[in-house]
Amino acid sequence: xxxxxxxxxxxxxxxxxxxxxxxxxxxxxxxxxxxxxxxxxxxxxxxxxxxxxxxxxxxxxxxxxxxxxxxxxxxxxxxxxxxxxxxxxxxxxxxxxxxxxxxxxxxxxxxxxxxxxxxxxxxxxxxxxxxxxxxxxxxxxxxxxxxxxxxxxxxxxxxxxxxxxxxxxxxxxxxxxxxxxxxxxxxxxxxxxxxxxxxxxxxxxxxxxxxxxxxxxxxxxxxxxxxxxxxxxxxxxxxxxxxxxxxxxxxxxxxxxxxxxxxxxxxxxxxxxxxxxxxxxxxxxxxxxxxxxxxxxxxxxxxxxxxxxxxxxxxxxxxxxxxxxxxxxxxxxxxxxxxxxxxxxxxxxxxxxxxxxxxxxxxxxxxxxxxxxxxxxxxxxxxxxxxxxxxxxxxxxxxxxxxxxxxxxxxxxxxxxxxxxxxxxxxxxxxxxxxxxxxxxxxxxxx
Length: 447
Fold this sequence. Notes:
8 helices, eight-stranded antiparallel beta sheet, alpha+beta
């Protein structure tokens, strides 16, 4: 079966999926917003709603507490806060959604990083009574670091400030100025009341001065980038398929999920890190041969030449192959309870490849409150975000995170017990204006 580029575009347009995350300070109403979004878009099952109504009545509340639709952990319900990332899947006739409801507490910054790392849009909530606070700036900074392309400022609890337009306008201007300085490419401000339902799914009769979209309308219409020509095509090899059966005596294919872009039969590719080249002779997807495949499809690619290729190798178009390096400069968010220190031996996992590495330098730790740099902290602890320089035992083919969130990201892992230590974003970020010099050190692992 042959699939043309035109057919591909039509398929993508008809099945667009938006991944988005919510963030905000404690008690800004994130879980209530998510609950209202699910409830008013008819995405809540009857038994779920009945359970929420029952739990609300047992607390003495007359109206159902929609926050309970997302706060699933017992500790979250007891304390009235969000602790872990809660994923919710729902759909409207116009689009499918994967929502990550992330915590607002400072100590759960790493949870927000997890939820927003794959998001194409972040909804940052602000209490209209409090305006932009420290945690609002922190979440805007994390969204900018993670290169989230769209940010929605939801100014919540407008009902508690009598739906006054000047209150909304002042908050929107302050946040937009701050986020723009961080490099957030698109910011949309929407005045809402999650509790009352104003401008969440239905337009508000209380704010006739606002002429923009509701939250759901914006989520349904915001552009989701599927421009294949703008993506660097990357294919991390996950598994080599050699049946060696009577039916397929000479079959050799390289299976995996396309990380970005598209691959076509007849295209010349380069295998990294070896640098060897070949031509794609076939692409198998779901048991069928196709002429083209695109991210995030899982496929098997067949090549014209028998090359030594194994798990962890990367296939890329020969005219657009990334450079390989053993010296990685990156921004990391430290997610483990144990610190990350200079000189520490780690494993670095990039796509399907895992290699030994050493933390050579931690040039700075970012203070998210004012975006200042604390130089040479020596180590990073839980929820810290900082710059690191890592030396790997083998060359890796990384893109800059600004160019590709999938192939520009990596994990640092404790080799002793497999604990994930930090999530990394290769290359420059808004957090530093100059490259960090690499300090050579031959102690420890010999590479």
